[in-house]
Design goal:
Blueprint lengths: L12 H7 L4 H18 L1 H6 L8 E5 L5 E5 L6 E5 L7 E5 L1 H8 L5 H6 L4 E4 L1 H14 L3 H8 L4 H15 L13
Parallel strand pairs: 1-4
Antiparallel strand pairs: 1-2, 2-3, 4-5
Helix pairs in contact: 7-8
Length: 180
């Protein structure tokens, strides 16, 4: 059976509005911790970036009230969140569901780009290197969060499965290369 294509869902406007007052520094710290855990668990991801390992990537989930800046330096990766547009070597913009689906291998990056669901500005070679490094590492953000959650891993796994089923947003890597 062929996997059915996933729809790119938009973050509900009410949820995006509710996220506006969230303090960004604690989220930046949490995402930096997650990124550093990924660096330890998947060191090849950062090696695969090659000369782009010190590039700055602006990830712009267009349906959320902030942008994410990723500095993937393998020795001290860091993530910062900002309420205003930021400058970087590369900007990758699209709905959060498209960005997460791309990370988890549920969406084809070329298809997202050519359908204009994903916009890439700046150094496209750096963006391609990041995409290839993530694809090669077969990242699963849900599994990475579970690895950090200790005794709460089972609870987080179940919550992630429920959230994914209810929202249609790909929060984990599909086991079979796509949803059926």
């Amino acid at each position: 059976m062929q996997p059915r294509p996933l729809a790119i869902t938009m973050t509900p406007a009410l949820l995006a509005f509710a996220l506006r007052p969230l303090p960004l520094p604690p989220l930046s710290i949490a995402l930096t911790a997650l990124t550093r855990s990924v660096a330890k668990r998947h060191p090849s991801l950062f090696r695969r970036l090659g000369s782009y390992a010190t590039a700055s990537f602006v990830l712009d989930p267009t349906d959320l009230p902030f942008v994410i800046c990723l500095f993937p330096d393998a020795t001290r990766p860091r993530v910062t969140l900002h309420r205003t547009a930021q400058q970087g070597d590369t900007r990758i913009a699209g709905p959060l569901a498209a960005l997460l689906g791309l990370v988890h291998g549920a969406f084809d990056g070329d298809a997202l780009f050519f359908s204009r669901d994903l916009v890439i500005e700046g150094n496209t070679e750096a963006a391609l290197a990041l995409r290839n490094a993530i694809d090669d590492a077969e990242l699963d953000i849900g599994a990475e969060l579970q690895a950090l959650s200790g005794p709460f891993a089972g609870l987080l796994r179940r919550a992630t499965a429920v959230a994914q089923a209810r929202t249609g947003v790909c929060l984990t890597r599909p086991d079979n290369g796509g949803y059926t």
